[in-house]
Fold:
Amino acid sequence: MWHLLTSAGGLGDYKYENFKRGRRIRGCRATLELLAFRFLCLIIILALFGCGGGGGDSVPPTSSPSVPSPAPEPMWTAKTSMPTPQYNAAAAAVDGKIYIIGGDNSPKMVQQYDIVTDTWTIKKPTLIEHNGSVAAAVEGKIYVITPSNDRQTVEEYDPVTDTWTAKSPTPSDRWNTTVAVVDRKIIIIGGFELKKNCGGFACIEVISSDQVEQYDPATDRWTVKTSLPMARGTCVAAAVEGKIYVVGSLKDVQSYDPVTDTWGMKSPLPMARSDMAAAVVDGKIYVIGGTTRTGPTALTITEQYDPVTDTWTTKSPMPTARYDMGVAVVDGKVYVLGGTQSEVNSLPHEAIGSVERYDPAQDAFSRRVWAGKAPMPTARYGMAAAFTDTIYVIGGAGSSILQTVEQYDPATDTWATKNPIPTGRIYPVAAAVNDKVYAIGGSSGSSILQTVEQYDPATDSWATKNPMPTARYDMAAAVVDGKIYVIGGTTNVSPTALQTVEQYDPATDTWAMKSPMPTGRHNFAVAVVDGKIYAIGGILGIDWTNRVEEYNPVTDTWTSKAELPDFRNGLAAAAVNGRVYTIGGIGHSTGYSDLDDEVREYNPALNSWTAKSFMPTGRYNFVAAAVNGRIYAIGGYENNTVLNRVEEYDPAQDQ
Structure:
C-alpha cells in the first residue's frame, strides 16, 4: 500500500529571508507596511522565477485558537531580556541569581537576574571598567578578572553586601582569557597578549597566549602553571570531575589536570569556532553558539561533550544566533545572556539583550523520540515526496528550481539518486498509487503547471499523463482508495487561495471535480486517517489560519474540526496509528512570527489536540513521511539556510 506526502510552502515565503538571526522576527506590522512588504516580495519573486506567489507576513485572524493541552517543557525558552544589552560581559551565578558584569555598552554596570521571578535588578557598579573580562564564583563571592596590558585587576564582589573589593592583580598582561574553577581555585587560560620585540626590533604584535595562572581566593595569591600545549585565544574552559577542558579557536580540545599540572589531548570539536559559551550540567559540557569568523557571523549550534566517553553530540540549536555572550548554570539549566550578532570585522558591534534558557534534561528526552538520520544528498525546500517502504523526494529548490529525484530507505538509512523528473518544479504535490509515483502541478519558475508526470520505480523512468484541470502550486494532496485528491493551492490570481478539489484516477488517467474545501488556503498540510482527509493550517491568501477541515470522499462533504492550537503555515503532517501529527512550519502567536519546532497530535476520534516533544530542528517548507510507524522530517528551510537534514520521530516513544 502506497502512501502520500505533499510539500508545504509557497513562493511568497521568500519573505522569510529576514530570519537571519534567530528564529523570531516581528510579525505585527501596520496594514500599509504589510501591503508594501507583500508587493515587494511579489516583485522579487517575479524577477527570480517569472511568477509570484504565496501569502505575505500577516496578523492572525481574529478567531481565537483552541486551548492546547499542556505542552512538554521546551528545550529552549525565551526569558526577560537584559535591561542594558551587553556583549563581552562576564557572567557568574550565586544563590540562584545570575550577575552580568561589565561589557562594551556599560563597562562598570552590574545587572542581576533572578531566575525565579524572571526579573532584573541593577547592582553596585564595579570599581573599574570591565570589558572582555571573565568571572568565577567561589564560596558565594564573584571574582572578576581583567588581565590586560593596562588593567591587571581582580575584583571581588559580595552579593550579600553588594560591595566590591580590589584583590591581587594578575601576573601577566593579556586579555580574552578563559576561566574555570577546580577545588575552590580559579584558573585562567590562554587569551591574547602583545609581543613587543620582534627579532631584536621594536614592534607591537597581537599574538595568542599559552599562559596559565591559578588564583587562590583564600590567600589572594597567584601561581604560574604549566603552559598550554598550543597557544589560543577566544576559547572557553569548563571543569568536570577536577579536570579542565579547553575548547575553541581551534578544533583541538585540550584537558588540564591541576593535580599533576599536565595537559592532554581529547576528541576535537566537530565545528571549529570561537567566542562561544560553555556550561557544565550533570558532568557534560555544552558548547553553545560562537562564530566561525569566515562563515555565518553568529551561530546557533549547541554541541555536548562527554568527558567519560570522549565523544561529541549535536544538541538542539539555540534560538538566537550570537557570540561573545554570557552563560551561567542554575538548577541544571543553562542561561545564555546577551552577546552580539554583528559582523566580526564590523565595528562597533551591536549588543543584544536576549536571554534564553536551555534545559538539557528535556533535550535528552526529546532525543529519545527524535533521532538524526543520514542527510539528503541535495539540500532543498518546496519539494514533494511519496512513500511506501522507501521515500521519493522530488523537485523543490536550492539555489535554483530542481529536477532532482532522490530515494531514501529508512531500513538502511541510505540515499540513492534516481532519474530526474522531466519538468523541474517547486511546490508540487506527489502521490503514489499501485507502485507508481505521480508528480502534479507546481511552478517551473516561468509558469504555473498543470503537468502530471508518472514515475515507475521498477524502470526508473518517467511518463507524461493527463494534465490537472487547474494549474496551481502550493497545494496539498492525499490518496484514498487508489485515487489522488489535489486540494487548495494558489494561482496568483484573485482569489489567491483556492478552494478547488480535483480527483485524479490513475487507473483511467482522468480528472473529476469535487466539492470545494470551505476554506480556500495554500501552504497547508493534509493527512489521511480512516479514509478521511484532514486539511490543516496554511494561508488564506493574506491571513494565516489554524482551521482544520475534514473531507469524506465517500459523501463528497466537508466538516469543520477542532482548530490547530496555533496559527501555522509551511508545516508538514503525517498519520501514524490513527493519529495525525503536525510538525514544524511558521507559527504565529503574541505578535511574533516563529520558526516552529512544535509537534502536535490530533486524535480524530476525540477531535482533540495534544502537544508532543519538540522537533530538534525548527523548519518550514519541508516534507514529512510516515514509514513503519515512524515519521521522517526531511529538508526545508531554517532561518537563512536550505537544509538537507533528516530527523526521525517515533510517536510510540513520545508518551
About this structure: Residues 1-72, 589-593 have pLDDT under 50 and may be disordered. Residues 3-70+371-653 form a domain with the Neuraminidase fold (CATH 2.120.10.80). Helices lie at 31-49, 360-369. The first strand starts at residue 3 and ends at 6.
